Amino acid sequence: MRARYPKAWLPVCIHQLDHLPQTETGRVDWTAIDRWERERELAANYTEPRGELEVKIHQIWSTVLHVDRIGVYDNFFEIGGNSLLSLRITSMIYRDLALKLSMTDVFEHPTIRQLAQRVGDRRVEPVAAIPVAPSADQYVLSRAQRRMWILSHLGEGTATYNMYKTCRVRGPVDRQRLEEAFRALIRRQESLRTAIVVVDGEAFSRIRPAAELPFKLRYRDYTDAEIPLEKAKAEAQRMAVRPFQLDQLPLFRVKLMRVAAEDYVFVLVIHHIIADGWSVDILVYELFVLYGSALGAQVAPLPELAIQYKDYATWEHGQLARSAFARQAQFWKKEMASPLPVLELPTDFSRPEVQTNRGSSTSFFLGTELSDALATLANRLQATPFMGMMAGLLALFHRYSGQTDIILGTPVSGREHPDLEHQIGLFVNTIPLRQHVQGHWNFGQLLRQVKKRSLRAFAHQDYPFDQIVDQLELTKDTSRSPLFDVLVVWDDIDLQTEVGAAQDAVLVEDFPIGNVLAKFDLTFHISQTDRGLAIGLSYNSDLFLPERIERMLVHLRELMTGLLRDPQLSIAEAKWESPDEAAREAYFAELSPEARDFYQRVNATEKAFPDQEPFTALFEKMVHAHPQRIAVEQNGRAWTYEALARASHQLGAHLLERGVQKEDLVAVFCDRSIETLTALLALFKIGAIYIPFTTDLPEERLRQLIEDNGIKCLLTTNDTLVRRPELEDAKADFLGLIPTLRIDQLLTAPLANTSPRPWPFIASDDLAYLIFTSGSTGKPKGAMVEHVGMINHMYAMIEDMEIDENSVVVQNASQSFDISVWQFLIALAVGGRTLIYDSPIIKDPLLFIEKINADQPTILELVPSYLAVLQDYQDDWAPLSLRYLAMTGEALKYNLVQRWFEENPDIPLVNYYGPTEVSDDITSLVIDRCPEDGPISIGKPIQNMRIYIVDEAGQLRPPGVKGEIYTSGIGVGRGYLNNPEKTKAAFGWDVYRTEPGVKLYRTGDIGAYRWDGNIEFWGRKDHQVKVSGHRIELGEIEHAMIKIAGVKEAVVSVAERGESSFLCAYFQREDPEGNLGADQLRKALQDLLPQYMVPSYFIEVERFPLTPHGKIDRKALPAPDLGAASERVRTEEARPPELEAPKASRSKLEILLNGMEHVLQQKAIAAEQNFFALGGDSILAIQLVAQLNREGYKLRVMDVFNTPVLAQMAPLLEAVKQKAEQGTIEGPVPLSPIQHQFFQSDRRQLHHYNQALTIQSTTAFEVDALQAAFDQLLLHHDALRLSFQCDAAGQWQQYNQGAESRSKLVLYDLRPSSDTVAKRLAICENLQRSFTLHEGPLVKAALFREQTADRLLLIFHHLLIDGISWRSVLDDFEALYRQALAGDSLRLPQKTDSFQLWCRGLVEYAQAPVFEDEIEYWQELVGTTVPALPLRRREDQRGSEQISFRLDAERSQQLTGAAHRAYGTEVNEILLAALTEAFAESMGVDKVWIMMEGHGREEIIPDLQCFRTVGWFTSEYPVLLENVASSEEAAATLIRTKDFLRQLPRKGIGYGIARYLRPELWEGEVAQFHPSVIFNFLGQFGEAEAATGEWQIFNEAGGAISDPEDGLDHPLQLAGMISDGQLLLTIEYDRQCFAPEQIRALSQAYQVALERLIDHCVGVEDTVKTISDFGYRELAMEDLEDLFD
Fold first, then answer.
1. Strands (E), 1082-1167
2. Rounded to whole angstroms, what are the CA distances from 90 to 86, 105, 419, 1409?
3. 239 alpha-carbon distance from chain centroid
């Protein structure tokens, strides 16, 4: 062999066998070879077992490990054992030897001899069999089932708890035998015949006899598909995500799909409530054993089942009371002691408020070398590979999050009792593994800790997970799973088996289809393969992108590689990226080349700008270029560039004259104003440093700032000192400390020295301003910013927002906020205009909006919380002039962005981020359209700035990994004034670049790069926060509170509601009996702190909760009640006004409280109490919902979880059968789909499109009674008062006018006339044309007095009414008239729900996720290409004509009766089938698109009833007619037509909703879809329908109901009705499109086909069932075909 093959190809060793082991089909049995090799290795050091106990343990081990020869000194974990197999060992020992062992026993005694010595002769009682439960109609659920039922209830309508198994089956499959095998399995396992029913609010299992569960194996042949295997995989995925109804059998679905010759995919989908993962494997195994047996193969029979799952569930209820369970309860209570950690992993999208289940998956191999290294270490420490992988994941998550306390979940089989070994059911339990990890540990230390804590948890694995959760009384968080978000599963079963005899054997093996559902954020499936450990990772795709998941697996592999190669390497030091070359310097050592290139690319921000000029030089250029242009405005005052330059020069000269020098500190103490801007420019001109003070600063704070920082003088105004006279002493010094200079006086005062001192030279790196930020020690920090950084920042914004000489920039930020500087100056750098808004304007949102609308600015910057308030005034807030809206100061939430672009799609947002210390913003993100999902990033570095994300050791973190945000570049300031310690801690030099001397700032913020270069912001690493745009050190407020007499301890945190954040202070009194309260604290703090730092809430605590380390546990502090005025103290800071908490409806609250008292068995429950605090839990929530439903009210279980406070929950109650609003409906009404269609038509005369009819009476109408009845009719039926307006964009809107909208009955007395008919028709013609859409009401009533009888003409514009509405109108009109005649009060039946409510409901329904599939259905349907009808285009043939035919009375009667017995049809279906054949006969087309009309009142909106409501509800939907008739199959077209119509979702109403309420989704050909044919069957009518003996109602319009010039909406319109017992079929056609002879031929062919089809149906003796008769209307057509293939 050496001579023929390369050395690398040669085997390491060669063994000679007598023969190769083979499977039944003659293939090499590799499993047997592996077993032989393992036994050969064991034989070398074999010591045989001695004694009965060792022999029996040996037999059990041999069975479990599939190894025949095991020595008593062989280590269980070294010969293939793992934690799952150890459970099987203990279970079999329990069954066969009556010895009760734990998994810990196996780990601590891993050899047969040690295990035998461990137990000795200590026997326990013999295993008691699980008893059979007494027969009953229903049975209790197990604990696991109960929890699954609750979870399924919460996720109603989803497939979250579907389980699925897909197998590849190779070989000849006998479908009939396989189906019989599955039927046998259904008979064997009761779980497959189990449904969950609810009785009196409690869930039970109900088992049906096997005979009542007909089963048919669904089958599909995909061999003709382009890629059959992918087609089968897609179908399997589709099956997996279809939800089950727990009360409807079966709770599983099965399908076999052929992908090639003797190659199939088998799919099983089953609900988790009747099976677990082990059960699924048992099911598939037993199915193919039964199949093999049916084929006659020699297979071992399945063991008899002594019990069924219901027996276990009944038995389990008794077990929960045992003392052993009480001990386990105590263990878990201690193990999960508060505070519980929440794992914070970096995500790509913001976490939804309610946990979703959309998932995806990927897989990964660790490789044999790494897997072997892990196994070696695990064996040495007597751990398992599972524990090793758990340790690896903990190390990874620690590196990602920095957390040291982490909870991961893992499932355990729950089958310790031997009776459960072969059961199908939900036995699995989940246990939370709480682990600790420290960065300085090596991997061995971590693994020892994992082993210790895991074994301790496994020893208590019997305790149900839901009991653990319940006893912890966790705060409900619907966004994530309780206790843990990551599940780790060790998969020990890899299905691969052969069944059948050699000639017809099939090979069954796993066929993964990828995960399409995610129960947790991350689920790791780990299994042992010949390629090493395999990791399947399922993840929630609403949180993670595939790229992040792939990088996570790479990080895991590289991290474990480093830790296993170097046993002494700490977790914190281990590398997790795989660099291909040495890093340039140590800080890049962690990064791969890809990540290093990323940093270089994203930080390539160098850009030229005027870096050698101070701002004053830029301003002077604009002064010379535009001296008379307005530079700044405020409250009607406007200064030109020249005036502003002159004033700032004057003020600067005065300052120089008074001895102010370059880089002196000068405070400006006045409200933002033109004077403030003048002072700012003046200080820049002389090189002094601008320090803004807000006028609400308390005296103590001002004194501290002046004394600590050496401020030279203070600039203010007379108005300011008038408001704060206490601040100036007799010498006119500020607080007796520094000179006070009045800006307004100096601007008009002459200079004392006509030869002032020379103006100093201002360099670009001189200091420009200093702004104080909050300090943790109670001392504010003065951040120093240079001109060059300030100007660089402004030029970045100029580019982002295209600021130029036409820009108008609003200055609305407080001077204490660093953004105020650029707002003052940026317009002046380019020749634009600054608008200064006073504080009162900002405090009043309506006033602010009014100013914006009047001033028409182009650039505005807001904090997100203020924008959220403005958006609540959307009717007034119309910032159409804005070119950009900048966001800053707070995290920008996705829902705020979404709403902005819904209302302002053409105005981009710019999200800015940056600390004061670095010249304001350092990143920006321009958002020109709403992103698909959040969170909103803070963007990329601005010009000439770099951003680094680093860990605690200063090493750069790769994209996707959180770390602290460092920034360097030209914008980094000089540090903190007079505070070298703080400066050293936060500032330094950029060691990440080659050039020296570049300043760097450590922000203290946490962020992570995305691979697209944008940065995701994660908050602060310390206790510094941002509230209303102000950066605040919570410690500074805490220091101030402790200074207040009577305060013993204080803690300050941030509370959030919606888009707003609030400060919340917790305090402990020195004297518990004292009376220190919120009012005193507020007042004291207002004397010490700026108003924005005074907390909104004050909460007293008796003692502060502590962590195990003795520190205050901030997470355990009680959350403030954000609606409680007693707890909250409003501050006067210029912040967005607060929105009051919603007030519950009294009646709903009473109903809710009564329901609560009934369910919770408590009295005197208060509105402000919390459901869960009262003892509520998941089951009680469901019972509460059931109780409210019995009382006629609807509440979702999810509402109880999301809104547990009763006062807030009460408004969510909805009447199950809601009583419609009986008052007058007014206001805007969304257009219905058919109304949208009308306005989008080519109709020229929109005002003239009516419906009308005539009422004739043999006795004279009484005019006053008619008028009274007509008035009441319009008042009752709100839609009859609709009017319509067209806006500037050409969009039509409708409005319900109020009760004042009336229509006067017009009387025409034609009795003297000789030509009554002609006059009446002329009048009617004028009335028909008299409507104007914007002038309601669009109704007319005209009474004609004639010689023979009175005629009453009613005309309604079609936009108001449809056919069904006419019936309500006529019935009500007659009833009202009779009442008026009798002098009775006018009364009608109660209204049903309004047309307004219906249309609003349609708009909501159109946006609902459940409707998305239906939109796709309609788009796919109308995308079907069909040859067009043979239309002509004759411009000389205008107008339309009609042709009609009648069926004889006998056939007409058969059409409405006897003909339907044959195929279970309806009139429409026979009419359309005959029409299909007529088109084929007369025009030669076998497929025709038509539009059908429906009444449009389908019950798609819950609890809405519109059966009496007037409005234009009509729906139109497309139907594809297809002729498949033949001489052999006379009814084939009829059957096809029937089944097509009945599989249309919701009788077609969704088409109009999708087409007209979601128009943005319709593009291209589908948007142009408009069939030439429309068909409508109107039902049965007589020539005249008698309303009473005196009233005759005629379908006689009188005059043209529409303008003849408008033509037909469809060139071919067919309408049928039963008139006087005969079918009348009318065809109206457009003469431009069809020739008369075409239509005559169609009409004749139609009549012949219709008569032939009726005769055929009447002649069929037995009823023939078709697909739609089996109730599968909601399934796709291919699913229906599966039932009969």
1. 1097-1100
2. 6, 9, 14, 48
3. 23
Rounded average pLDDT over 1466-1486: 92
pLDDT digits (tens, 9 = 90+) for 893-923: 887 898 899 889 999 999 999 999 999 999 9
Contact status, residue 814 vs residue 800, Cβ threshold 8 Å = no
What stretches of 399-521 adopt beta strand conformation (E)?
A: 405-412, 429-436, 486-490, 496-499, 506-510
Q: What contacts 799, CB < 8 A, 6 or more positions away?
A: 943
Could you identify the residue written with the tokens 């207002």? Answer: 1086
Peptide bond into 339 cis (omega under 30): yes
- Residue 728 to residue 718: CA distance in whole angstroms: 11
* Segment 1330-1336 long-range contacts (CB within 8 Å, at least 24 positions apart): 1331/1247, 1331/1248, 1331/1250, 1331/1357, 1332/1247, 1333/1246, 1333/1247, 1333/1283, 1333/1284, 1333/1285, 1333/1357, 1333/1359, 1334/1283, 1334/1284, 1334/1285, 1334/1286, 1335/1283, 1336/1281, 1336/1282, 1336/1283, 1336/1297, 1336/1301
- State the pLDDT confidence band at 755, using cuts at 50, 70 and 90: low
Q: Are 1384 and 1390 in contact (CB under 8 A)?
A: no
Dmax (CA) of the chain: 129
- CA-only gyration radius of the chain, Å: 41
What percent of the chain has pLDDT above 70? 86
What does the CA dihedral 226, 229, 235, 240 come to, rounded to 10 degrees? -160
My answer on whether omega of the bond before 756 falls inside 30° of 0, hence cis, is no
Interacting residues of 140 by C-beta distance below 8 A, sequence separation 6+: 204, 205, 313, 314, 317
Cβ-in-10-Å burial (0-12, 13-18, 19+) of 126 comes to exposed
Distance of CA 577 to the CA centre of its chain: 33
Segment 1325-1370, tens digit of pLDDT: 999 889 999 888 899 999 988 888 888 999 999 999 988 788 788 8
CA torsion 764-766-768-770 (nearest 10°) is 150
* Mean pLDDT (whole number) for 140-149: 87
Reading the block at residue 1114, the tokens are 């901030």
1595, pLDDT greater than 50 = yes
pLDDT of 44 > 60? The answer is: no
Cα–Cα distance, 1192 to 1196 (Å, whole number): 13
Is residue 927 within 8 A of residue 909, CB to CB? The reply is yes
Tokens of 817: 């906020």
- DSSP code for 1466: -
Contact 450, 383 (CB under 8 A): yes
For 1061, the 3-state DSSP assignment is strand
What sign has the CA pseudo-torsion 1234, 1236, 1240, 1242? positive
Question: Which pLDDT tens digit goes with each residue over 1523-1565?
Answer: 887 666 778 899 889 888 888 888 889 999 999 998 888 877 7
Say how many CA atoms lie within 13 Å of 1333 toward its Cβ. 20
With 0-12 CB in 10 A as exposed, 13-18 as middle and 19+ as buried, what is 396? buried
* Higher local confidence (pLDDT), 389 or 1681: 389
Which alpha helices (H) appear in 138-259, and where do they start and end? 143-154, 175-188, 228-240
Query: Is the pLDDT reported for residue 494 higher than 80?
Result: no
State yes or no: pLDDT of 683 exceeds 90: yes
Residue 1104 DSSP SS3: coil
Specify the amino acid at residue 1411.
F
d(CA 512, CA 166): 6
In the numeric block, the tokens 């450590």 are attached to: 1002
Residue 578's pLDDT band, with cuts at 50, 70 and 90, is very low
pLDDT digits (tens, 9 = 90+) for 284-338: 889 988 988 888 776 778 888 989 999 999 988 777 656 567 788 889 989 988 7
